Every structure is written in C-alpha cells, then in structure tokens.
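Bumping my old thread because nobody answered last time. Still need a sequence for this structure:
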C-alpha cells in the first residue's frame, strides 16, 4: 500500500485538534500540581512547574507514539508518521 502525504489543511486541522487536547491535558495536570504544591511564592515553584508540564507533554506524546504510533487527533484524521520505506 502506497502512502501519500496529507494535504496542508488536513495537517493544520490535526495540529489544532492536537493543541486543544494537549491544553486540556496540561490544564488538568496544572490543577493537580497546584493542589499538591500550594506555595506559589517559592523561588523554585515556577521552574518546577514548567519542568512538570514539559514532562507531562513528553509522557503524552511518548505514550501514544509507542502504543500505536498515533495520537488521538492523528487517529481521527487518519494520519501516521512513517519512514521513507513505509515502515512505522
């Protein structure tokens, strides 16, 4: 089966959908972080919070790409990342 590159608009809509889902995931993660660490005046709060959000985003993408090779928007828009020889 020959793979075709998706058109620009399909990729753009998938990226918009991906950003909405990622914002929701990070919002929930932020809520949990703020419940656990309530002292926002600490000098280490901001760097720890940013590192935590980066870690959560990394876990989100890593988990989906290692369990099927597609995130939820990629599954919805039937997109997948493949190598030049057609392998996952």
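Sorry it took so long. Here it is:
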């Amino acid at each position: 089966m020959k793979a075709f590159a998706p058109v620009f608009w399909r990729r753009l809509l998938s990226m918009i959908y991906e950003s909405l889902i990622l914002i929701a995931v990070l919002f929930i993660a932020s809520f949990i972080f703020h419940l656990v660490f309530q002292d926002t005046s600490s000098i280490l709060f901001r760097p720890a919070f940013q590192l935590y959000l980066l870690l959560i985003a990394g876990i989100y993408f890593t988990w989906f790409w290692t369990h099927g090779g597609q995130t939820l928007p990629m599954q919805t828009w039937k997109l997948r990342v493949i190598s030049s020889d057609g392998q996952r």
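The chain has a mean pLDDT of 87. Let me know if any region looks off to you.
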